[in-house]
Amino acid sequence: MDETNEQSLVEQALALIEERKFAQLHDLIHEENAADINEIIDEVTPEQGVIIYRLLPKELAAEVFVEMDPDMQEFLINAFSDAELKNVLDELYYDDTADIIEEMPANVVKRILRTATPEMRKAVNELLKYPEDSAGSIMTTEFVRLKKNYTVEDSLDLIRKVGIDKETIYTCYVTDDKSRLIGIVTAKDLLLSPLQNNIENIMTDHVISVSTLDDQEQIALLFSKYGFIAMPVVDNENRLVGIITVDDAIDVLQEETEEDFAKMAATAPTETDYLKTSPFVFYKARIPWLLLLMVSATFTGMIISNYETSLAALPVLTAFIPMVMGTGGNSGSQTSVTVIRGISLGEVEFKDFFKVVLKELSVAVLCGLTLFAATTVKLLLVDKLLLHNDAVDFTVAITVGLTVFATTICAKVIAAMLPQLAKKIGLDPAVLSSPLITTIVDALSLLIYFGMATLILHIA
Amino acid sequence: MDETNEQSLVEQALALIEERKFAQLHDLIHEENAADINEIIDEVTPEQGVIIYRLLPKELAAEVFVEMDPDMQEFLINAFSDAELKNVLDELYYDDTADIIEEMPANVVKRILRTATPEMRKAVNELLKYPEDSAGSIMTTEFVRLKKNYTVEDSLDLIRKVGIDKETIYTCYVTDDKSRLIGIVTAKDLLLSPLQNNIENIMTDHVISVSTLDDQEQIALLFSKYGFIAMPVVDNENRLVGIITVDDAIDVLQEETEEDFAKMAATAPTETDYLKTSPFVFYKARIPWLLLLMVSATFTGMIISNYETSLAALPVLTAFIPMVMGTGGNSGSQTSVTVIRGISLGEVEFKDFFKVVLKELSVAVLCGLTLFAATTVKLLLVDKLLLHNDAVDFTVAITVGLTVFATTICAKVIAAMLPQLAKKIGLDPAVLSSPLITTIVDALSLLIYFGMATLILHIA
Fold this sequence. Notes:
The first copy, chain A, is mainly alpha-helical.
């Protein structure tokens, strides 16, 4: 990882652009990776971006174009002549074209479709039909298709002929005369087998495939489970319609992970890099959650108001409110994050509902007992003996200790149940359950606290 | 994704084991994927696991062995004859052997090393020297090495000869006579080039490589940035010592993601699937954090005790404590999670310190103004007019509103700074900063609240 070198690549490029030394700039970048060239383009004006783009060899230019920021793509397309646009489109895979089209305004889309070959237009239109986040929306239709009666030699010849246009040649797919997927052959199989062997004899016929409408996150997890570099996608009738490659699966994993992180931080996900995201975008992502959680605090406020006279009679109780609520909140979020991740990763299914609740209940009892002991001892040793808070006595310590115990149990059990129930009724476990769990656990911990106080300390 | 089929694979296998129909069991599983077979082994006794294992063809058996739970691996090795152990080891890649050795007790390690070939012993010992989480610890030493004067035909012949033992043949590495990495050639390049071409003419000489001591998470992110399927690892003198393959990179991404989730939920990460993790393991992962956060609540308790008489004089203030502290906590965690992820993903570096603080300050001002307005209006409309809480008047509403505004600003700025400072002094941003941010923000929000109350409402 030559961070220093990468650094200087951008800096060197910027200096050369500044001095308009385009021949040297060409030499500097014409063998770089697309991701690194886009880091340069991100730092310059759109006009300079066009200049850089035009210095690139055709194939690299297409790669750079695919990974580019949508605004820059739009700017480039508008700067292109029709011939230039056609050259780019000819280099693109259909799935990348479909992705680009989804981000462009209508007039640009029209121009792209007018310039594309009829074949590409048809393929792209097919791809655009699949719902967002489905296997169909991330698959590519450009793969190597073999027949079972081909020899290894036939297959290698075919790869030599068509391979340049395929997104991967490392896994080839064997289909029958109805286009149904019957096996896979890897390039490794082909390279290591005698040339006269039949595909039928070397293919793996136990093939794991996904359906066009399957969820992209579940598919990405299959890549991690099986270690595949490509996965076939079939339609209702088991006809092979596309493949998903591992680089797209990694992108999906990254995207879904960031979404989950955002939800757990009570903010909507933002799509761009941190430094490129404007404060206003962050504001819009965060403020709804802050307002929602503030509404939830209304309930706790109402509960406290209700016990105002009791608190006035025994003011020491007020000091422990944050600790009681905090412990409830932390206990609950430990459980909810763990369960929500378990659901996301497919480790936890609804049939495990009671197993999960029972497990969290066991953890809660262990944690609750420890916290009960810690709280009681801490109140008596630290608050009473060390800080000389005379209002703290044995019964107050037991009251707070029992509250912490009961709160931990309630918080963990509720946090174990809600995400699973949310998932069951078709809602996003993270989005629905976090604010709901917070609201319920906050209110409950106060009710338990005042309940215990009424019971043990006879406040009323 | 044939969830139903997978389901029934395990069930079918269990039924066949129950009835001791091993011939049928062999037919059922001998073409399955390693991950699926391990799902069966997870459900049976270790003795039955050995039976299943012995039904597998040699190559598949090795794959299943590699992915198996370490306890089961140990059980199997102890059940193996020396000849059986040798057979397995012969099928394993060196990096997988090294991983297994790291999990085994000393006597098993001795037996493995005694049985391994001298060549494997040497390679494994080399791999075991690299620190945990480094590139060296996840790389494999089995790759295809080419010379620049080879022809395409030579190279394909070499692949046919040695390819079966290599972890990937899809990227081949070109080294000079000092073993220094000078280029890469993909199997696609080889298959699509004329046989008499020289490697020198078709290789890519701009190669991105990592060093043996580079951090595994940063490397995994490079896979996602560049879309590679393998990455070369070089030593200090640019000599090629190994490669990292995309499947291992995905595992690293998954593992690091789970660690980050765990830290943000204030729990230590657990290594196994949710349902397989015992309550006691969860208890040990969670209780230290709950106790730590409880200590942090001591400070808030002390602050409240300090203002006990003021609260007694104006009891309505108590009711808004949870809302004020909650808003501070939520504002802070929105920022800290976002910044911590930015650091993890390499989007935020220390040189951006002030950019980040300034951005979060801007977001905080926007959020703070909105929350100020919402709070004041809510107190006057809901608490005063609707709930007839006569203790709430205009000055109380302004006091709470201003507190929420100031708390939001402080929380976001502190949460923006601490993770970056933690990283700078070499600590884990998530582990250090979450409890520290909570403690500081909780205490600060109360101090601001009582400060505002003293200033505006003249409580004392």
